[in-house]
Write a structure and sequence with these properties.
heterodimer; A: alpha+beta; 2 domains; three-stranded antiparallel β-sheet; globular; disordered N terminus; B: about 525 residues; mainly alpha; two-stranded antiparallel ribbon; flat; WH-like_DNA-bd_sf (chain B)
Chain lengths: ~240, ~525
């Protein structure tokens, strides 16, 4: 897997498995259905219907949810597919991914670097290792972490499509250092040249260690309730 | 770096070395600090392809050295990827790849075996060669530890392999085995001679423990397991799996420990515990029909021989439910049941008359050997007859119940003899079957040899024919040649004649001669 800017690649999720993060948040008649999961865009579309029906049945939701769920999934997939034909910028792009999420009683804060060009990356594997190493017992945390990573990757992949379009428009001059243009295109990526040069070390400085260290907190019931109430207020 | 091979009593040798020693597996002896080995280059082509500024050999070496040194700071604790990734700058997926590579080769975490290694994706092919024969390597000169360290490193050659204890067994077998005389005062005084040389009274025996006195350990409330309770137990185990609290609740009169111990004793109990995820739903109905006469069932479970005969019948019953049968087959894990299964299989193959003959011969031989009357085996042989018949014939439940009732008459036979009888029968049946097979093989061999010879003959014949034809052709050609020769000579003669009759000039003569 050559990593340098070898030319544009068709848009896809930059992970080993091309799975799209789908988020659902449907409210109807006082009931709220919130969910987040990954979907395989190469699944046939009737799978959406099957999934929606199954969900409504399992969670005993009113039947109006069925059409809302399938519509929401379809529109998110359509968005994804709209990008699919286009070119994505490739090239060294190591970005920091931040985690700041709460799953039931577990609070996770973390930051780490992710190579957007590493098409063998696996958010689910990373999440599994994280939960195992930190001794997280709640089995819902892993998938939530993987989902958060995927969402961020998706966003950045989308951004790289537009940046690829930009650089194509003003293409004539930009033959030179792809790395420079990459880091300018999205302000997120690191200054790779400086970091990985011959003189510097890849061992992180002590002052940065805290930022890149994962933190897991277990909340009490009251804290969970307080946080949930706050989130509700924000949502409205 | 010095490398010394592991010696079992190398303490004196260690005293000589003043450097820190670490153990890595023998397969990883290629590793050197100063250089990057071919194995590493092959594994991490992305670092060595010079196509990226973030992936260079220098970066790889830094990652690798840092991780290994971090591990060696404290080899007693297992280094996790999460604890180390915060120290290194770079793509976490790549770092993880390096980490897994080092772990796989035992360069880190060699002495700590992760218990949920299986959970990790197949990427991390953990080397199973964690033999105690490790190679001692010294630390790098520029590691974080001082080079001159206390001379002795403890001989940690054995990997710290621990298996989680089986909860059910340790729960149950806490107390030493009790002889039944004490906890069951109400039982009769008749004692049984038993394989295990432990004396059990017949009631306790009947109540379901034959080979292990597990039931008699601890709880005195584990007196009788009625059929309803056994049924309930099995159903709840299938439903709740390993959740013994729920199981105990379902079987309301029995405590958690009782349930576990009872389940162990049942011949298929181990299997159920192992497959308690509910895979065996298909076999629940068949169990029910057998449990319909569980008192007979319980009495059956007196000896290995009988018990496994019973499982054999159950097995055959399920031929109409192939998936359940396959699982049952998998259940026969211990050697004795396997043996009985073989008996059944062989009995099927050679037919009832042969089986009975073999059984009779076996019994006769055994009796001569043990010098006990043949009469005691009368019922046994009948049983075997019926078993053989039945195993060849139909597979109704009713037959089994018949047979079960028959078996009740064998209560007083010593266990050891029955075992031997069955084994001998097995051998007899096996021998008969083997002879049949051998005869078949011989005949086949003869047939094959004959056909080979046949083929050779045919080959020879065709060759001869070919040569004959050739000869005929050659003869014909020879004749033609002769004929041609003659005509040429004739022509020559006639030409000469005409030449002579015409008169020869001197000149022509000369030319002729020439």
């Amino acid at each position: 897997m050559k990593a340098s800017g070898k030319g544009p690649v068709k848009f896809r999720m930059p992970t080993a498995e091309n799975l799209v993060p789908i988020r659902l948040d449907i409210q109807f008649e006082g009931q709220r259905y919130k969910d987040a999961f990954t979907w395989n865009p190469s699944d046939p579309d009737n799978e959406i219907v099957v999934f929606a029906r199954r969900t409504v049945k399992d969670l005993k939701l009113p039947p109006a949810f069925f059409s809302q769920i399938s519509q929401s999934i379809q529109s998110q997939l359509a968005d994804f597919r709209a990008y699919e034909g286009q070119d994505m910028y490739t090239g060294e792009k190591i970005i920091p991914i931040k985690l700041d999420l709460r799953v039931n009683h577990t609070l996770i804060k973390d930051q780490f670097l992710w190579d957007l060009n590493n098409f063998e990356s696996d958010p689910e594997e990373f999440a599994r290792t994280l939960c195992k190493d930190l001794g997280v017992e709640d089995p819902e945390v892993g998938p939530a972490v993987a989902f958060a990573i995927r969402e961020q990757l998706y966003e950045i992949a989308v951004q790289s499509v537009s940046s690829a379009r930009e650089s194509r428009l003003s293409k004539k001059s930009r033959r030179g250092s792809d790395y420079g243009s990459a880091s300018k295109a999205s302000g997120l990526s690191m200054d790779l040249v400086k970091l990985f040069s011959f003189k510097s070390s890849v061992v992180r400085k002590r002052k940065d260690l805290d930022v890149y260290e994962p933190m897991v907190d277990l909340l009490t019931n009251e804290e969970v309730d307080a946080l949930e109430a706050r989130e509700e207020r924000h949502a409205r | 770096m010095e490398v010394t091979t592991d010696r079992s009593s190398s303490k004196d040798a260690e005293l000589e070395l003043e450097l820190e020693l670490y153990t890595i597996p023998a397969q990883s002896s290629w590793f050197v600090w100063d250089d990057i080995h071919e194995i590493e280059r092959r594994e991490f082509t992305e670092f060595f392809s010079e196509s990226s500024i973030t992936r260079t050999p220098k970066v790889y070496k830094e990652y690798r050295d840092f991780i290994i040194n971090k591990y060696r700071e404290d080899t007693s604790r297992r280094l996790t990827f999460t604890s180390i990734r915060k120290y290194l700058i770079g793509d976490v997926n790549l770092l993880r790849k390096v980490f897994l590579f080092l772990e796989k080769w035992g360069l880190i975490n060699f002495l700590q075996k992760s218990d949920d290694v299986v959970v990790e994706e197949s990427e991390a092919k953990i080397e199973q060669g964690t033999t105690p024969a490790g190679i001692r390597v010294t630390s790098t000169p520029n590691s974080t530890r001082p080079v001159i360290a206390p001379p002795l490193v403890e001989e940690r050659a054995e990997p710290a392999l621990t298996f989680p204890p089986l909860t059910s067994y340790s729960d149950v077998f806490k107390k030493p085995a009790l002889v039944c005389g004490q906890p069951c005062p109400s039982h009769s005084a008749a004692f049984y001679e038993h394989n295990n040389k432990s004396n059990l009274c017949d009631k306790c025996f009947k109540n379901g423990g034959e080979n292990n006195s597990a039931e008699l350990i601890g709880s005195s409330a584990a007196a009788a397991w009625t059929e309803e309770e056994t049924l309930l137990l099995l159903e709840s185990v299938l439903k709740h799996g390993h959740d013994w609290e729920l199981v105990a609740q379902s079987v309301s009169t029995k405590s958690r420990l009782d349930c576990i111990s009872k389940l162990i004793e049942l011949p298929f109990g181990d299997f159920l515990m192992g497959s308690a995820s509910g895979r065996l739903r298909s076999s629940v109905p068949t169990e029910d029909e057998h449990l319909s006469s569980p008192s007979n069932l319980v009495q059956q479970m007196k000896t290995d021989g009988q018990e496994h005969k019973e499982t054999e019948t159950r097995e055959e019953n399920e031929e109409d439910e192939p998936p359940a049968k396959r699982k049952r087959a998998a259940m026969m894990s211990d050697g004795d049941s396997y043996l009985m299964k073989q008996v059944a299989a062989m009995a099927c193959k050679v037919g009832p008359s042969v089986t009975t003959a073999a059984a009779k011969a076996a019994i006769a031989a055994l009796c001569d050997e043990a010098s006990c009357p043949k009469d005691i085996f009368e019922t046994t042989s009948d049983y075997k007859n019926s078993a053989a018949d039945r195993s060849v014939g139909d597979k109704d439940t009713s037959d089994i119940e018949e047979q079960q009732e028959e078996k009740e008459g064998l209560e007083d036979l010593p266990v050891g003899l029955r075992m031997r009888v069955s084994v001998a029968t097995a051998l007899g049946a096996a021998a008969a079957h083997a002879k049949v097979l051998a005869d078949q093989e011989e005949r086949e061999m003869e047939l094959l040899v004959a056909s080979v010879i046949d083929q050779q003959l045919k080959k020879m014949k065709s060759k001869l024919k070919f040569l004959e034809e050739l000869e005929v052709i050659m003869d014909a050609e020879e004749k033609v040649m002769e004929g041609a020769k003659e005509t040429i000579i004739q022509e020559r003669i006639s030409v000469l004649q005409s030449a002579f009759s015409g008169g020869i000039t001197k000149r022509w003569d000369h030319t002729c001669v020439k």
